[in-house]
Amino acid sequence: MLTGCTPWPPELAAYYRQQGYWEGQTLGDLVDCWAAEYGAREAVISDDERISYRELQRRVDRLAHQLLRLGLRPPERLVVQLPNVPEFIYLYYACAKVGVLPVMALPAHRYAEISYLAAFSEASAYAIPASFRGYDYPQLARQVRQAAPGVRHVLVAGNDTPEDMVSLAVLLADPIEASTPGPERLQAIHPDPSEVALFLLSGGTTGLPKLIPRTHDDYAYNSRASGALCGIGPETVYLASLSIAHNFALASPGIQAVFQQGGKVVLTNSTEPADAFALIERERVTVTALVPALALRWIEAPEQAQFDLSSLRLLQVGGARLNPEPARRITPTLGCQLQQVFGMAEGLLNYTRLDDPEEEIMETQGRPCSPDDEIRIVDDDDHDVPPGQPGHLLTRGPYTIRGYYKAPEHNRRAFTSDGYYRTGDVVCLSHGGNLMVAGREKDMINRGGEKISAEEIENLILAHPNVFNVAVVAMPDLVLGERTCAYVIPKPGVSLTFQELIAFLKQKQIATFKLPERLEVLASFPLTSIGKVSKKDLREDIVCKLKAEGRM
């Protein structure tokens, strides 16, 4: 495998191939198979644009040729920071055709995250929208190129591409394939299916995200197995409203599973319920995926009555734990079945089954996707706990990584000697054999599915001239699940307001969702018996304050 990545043991890799999990095709090969099998069927709908499988293949191949003409070669890296637009899909599969490795950034990321990703991955290119939700991405790209001079090309989706950058629209309009060796040239550079195809981002508890290497073989199986469990088929119309840079919307089952079955993907960047409802009615959407915070907005939206949602048969909810109370409201309110999803970009995916008893669907987060997903639930000493008792979730399997990219020290902590990944989740088994998520052992805030490293935010706050010490914790929230609360001890003789703290952090150019949403100022922190800051006590403190304020 790529230097810096950890391969599966040869005997396990052989077993996964023998079982048919790994089919020996690249993600780029899949595009050719889809074009041959599904041809003129609609593959992608975006605004008024309707793209067939054959046209999808043509645009992917054209862009693959253009990447080669720009001088990109395997296994160079390309940071992809695009919203839900067709260019994301073309670029994702074009990279797979030529062995260039996309690093899946999020549109919400800013200079702190992108400059790190570009430098750490040694990226040669960076893809951005011309603008999105009012943000100036070309200006960000110029800052990133100064911090990571290895970035030779900035690819821009949308109008008004600056002169020092490359327009994806221009590349896609140029029939380069007519003047090149065509398929023979792409075939000559055909990647190894067992090699890394892309990098996803970890939720991260130790600062900025780690890179998760996913291979062609394992990621194709990731979506194929998920699609089979979720009833994805040729008549599926999937609304992609979550960012398709996320594993959930990309391949769990996501857009990739829909393509594998010849279904239709409807792209949107709006998170407004009315916009989603309009698309469901217009395109007769059958399946979509949301995080709990958005699911709550949907079931409470007054606009429901204005639209025909009768085509929607399945709503998947994941990214964070869905509480039973709103879970029970989904089917009566929206008229569709609920499927809970609990997974991670590192691999393991759990789904409630479509024929599970109602109690399991409402109360649990499902069970593993693959027959050869291995899980253990253990205590602090790695001893298996009895069924029904909470413990730390460990896993390994045909689509769960064996190590993060270039992170040997972290890998020694995150993986057992026999290859199990320590997920950081505390779970127990239900009576029906499904997993019930009790929480996280790691110091991370899960804000509506977006994972925030407490340590990263603490390090930034400590740079404030008025801050002596800081502890960042999650505080419960009825809509998003968790929000970020910063406990601060100011330096002697000075003060700090919430507004001052936020203004300071905005100067650090971090993603907006990472900003604390409450500040608590203390003279000292509670300590554990060994003298460490007791975040347990701080979490209990904020819960008490929220209850006293009537917010819980």
What is the strand and helix layout of this fold?
Blueprint (H helix, E strand, L loop, with lengths): L9 H9 L8 H12 L3 E5 L2 E4 H17 L7 E4 L5 H13 L2 E4 L6 H11 L1 E7 L7 H11 L5 E5 L8 E2 H6 L9 H6 L7 E6 L9 E5 H14 L7 E4 L6 H5 L2 H7 L3 E4 L5 H11 L3 E4 L1 H9 L13 E4 L6 H11 L2 E7 L5 E3 L6 H6 L3 E2 L5 E5 L12 E6 L11 H7 L6 E9 L5 E6 L3 E4 L2 E4 H8 L5 E11 L3 E10 L7 H9 L11 E4 L13 H14 L4
Parallel strand pairs: 1-11, 3-4, 3-5, 5-6, 6-7, 10-11, 10-12, 12-13, 13-14, 24-25
Antiparallel strand pairs: 1-2, 8-9, 14-15, 15-16, 17-18, 18-19, 19-20, 21-22, 23-24
Helix pairs in contact: 2-3, 2-4, 3-4, 5-6, 9-11, 13-14
How many extended strands? 25
Q: How is the largest sheet built, in terms of strand order?
A: 2-1-11-10-12-13-14-15-16
Provide the low-confidence segments as ranges.
none
Q: Report the CATH C-level class of the largest domain.
A: Alpha Beta
Q: Rg, please?
A: 23 Å
CATH topology-level fold name of the largest domain:
Rossmann fold
* Percent range for β-strand residues: 15-25%
The biggest beta sheet is recorded as: 9 strands, mixed
Count every helix, treating DSSP H or I runs of 4 or more residues as helices. Answer: 19
The mean pLDDT is 94
